[in-house]
């Protein structure tokens, strides 16, 4: 009888796995519409008690969508959102997919808010994981400019086991609306340390390097002001800061990308690699996004 029961169990498992493979397409779907992904509640019912297996299949599709995109994975935000929604509905005890969505779903305000809702879902199933409210705080601060909402999320994270002690200081800055360059740097440094995704980690490291570039550019701004007071005129060339009768520095700080410092036509000092200055919440891709969102808001589309 035991052997018969075991055989029946194996047969049921084999049938269930076959059904799952028939119902769930295995190829990545970056070239297909998010409407091809089933509703999460339907996927949960169809999982036939094999929730982790079904969740893994849709999770692999989400990973493949990002892996197959060479320029801007965030443009697949709606598709990624549907896939991760299925994953976290079918098996809400998964961990990394919540944070994966938070990183890659940044192509529009709607995508960011969708990712934030997924992060909020994680709180019920991972109540002691400080990383999920931390990512929620980062998204609210970095992409939505919502300092108070970010502070609320970090306040939650700060009280959980293993949370970095500096989160309380970040909360205070955000509550006081004094967040800026150093707040961005603190967020990004933690994301570099905690990221489980090498591709995401590389992007955070690039953003941190840009912040370091801005720190040095601001040092040069101060030198430029000293030069203006001493010479009674604006800089004509960068090297006037270190050469000539009105020099104010012994040497220029290194440009972090290994490039040079340049003076724009407007008289602003910039990195020769970046050709622009850093602003809180903004790096190259995000600058385009935020400008696009602002235009849509003006046109009443958001």
Secondary structure: elements and pairs:
Layout: H1 2-23, H2 40-46, H3 51-68, H4 77-90, H5 96-104, H6 109-125, H7 131-142, H8 147-158, H9 167-175, H10 181-194, H11 198-231, E1 261-263, E2 269-271, H12 284-298
Antiparallel strand pairs: 1-2
Helix pairs in contact: 2-4, 3-4, 4-5, 4-6, 5-6, 5-7, 6-7, 7-8, 7-10, 8-9, 10-11
What structural keywords apply?
302 residues; mainly alpha; two-stranded antiparallel ribbon; 61% helix; 2% strand; elongated
- Unreliable stretches (pLDDT < 50, length at least 5) are 1-24
Q: In sequence order, what are the helices and strands, one letter per element?
A: HHHHHHHHHHHEEH
The coarse silhouette is elongated
Strand content: under 5%
Average pLDDT, rounded to a whole number, is 82
The spatial strand order of the largest sheet comes to 1-2
* Oligomer description: single chain
Radius of gyration: 25 Å
- Share of helical residues: 55-70%
N-C termini distance = 64 Å
What is the number of helices?
A: 12
Give the class from helix and strand content and strand pairing. Answer: mainly alpha
Number of DSSP strand runs: 2
Largest sheet data: 2 strands, antiparallel
């Amino acid at each position: 009888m035991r052997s018969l029961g075991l055989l029946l169990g194996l047969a049921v498992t084999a049938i269930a796995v076959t059904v799952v493979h028939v119902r769930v397409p295995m190829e990545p779907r970056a070239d297909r519409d998010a409407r091809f992904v089933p509703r999460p509640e339907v996927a949960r019912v169809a999982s036939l008690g094999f929730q982790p297996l079904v969740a893994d299949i849709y999770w692999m599709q989400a990973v493949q969508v990002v892996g197959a995109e060479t320029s801007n994975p965030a443009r697949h935000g709606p598709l990624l959102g549907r896939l991760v929604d299925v994953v976290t509905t079918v098996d809400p005890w998964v961990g990394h997919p919540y944070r994966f969505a938070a990183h890659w779903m940044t192509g529009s305000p709607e995508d960011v808010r969708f990712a934030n809702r997924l992060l909020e879902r994680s709180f019920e199933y991972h109540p002691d994981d400080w990383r999920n409210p931390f990512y929620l705080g980062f998204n609210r601060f970095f992409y939505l400019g919502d300092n108070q909402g970010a502070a609320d999320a970090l306040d939650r994270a700060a009280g959980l086991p293993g949370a970095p002690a500096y989160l309380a200081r970040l909360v205070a800055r955000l509550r006081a609306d004094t967040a800026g360059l150093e707040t961005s740097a603190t967020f990004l440094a933690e994301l570099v340390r905690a990221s489980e995704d090498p591709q995401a980690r590389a992007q955070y490291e690039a953003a941190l390097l840009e912040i370091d570039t801005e720190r040095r550019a601001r040092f040069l701004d101060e030198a430029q002001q000293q030069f203006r007071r001493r010479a009674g005129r604006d800089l004509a060339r960068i090297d006037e800061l270190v050469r000539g009768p009105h020099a104010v520095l012994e040497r220029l700080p290194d440009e972090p990308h290994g490039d040079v410092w340049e003076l724009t036509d407007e008289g602003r000092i910039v990195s020769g690699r970046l050709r622009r200055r850093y602003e809180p919440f903004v790096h190259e891709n995000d600058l385009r996004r935020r400008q696009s969102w602002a235009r849509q808001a003006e046109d009443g589309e958001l």
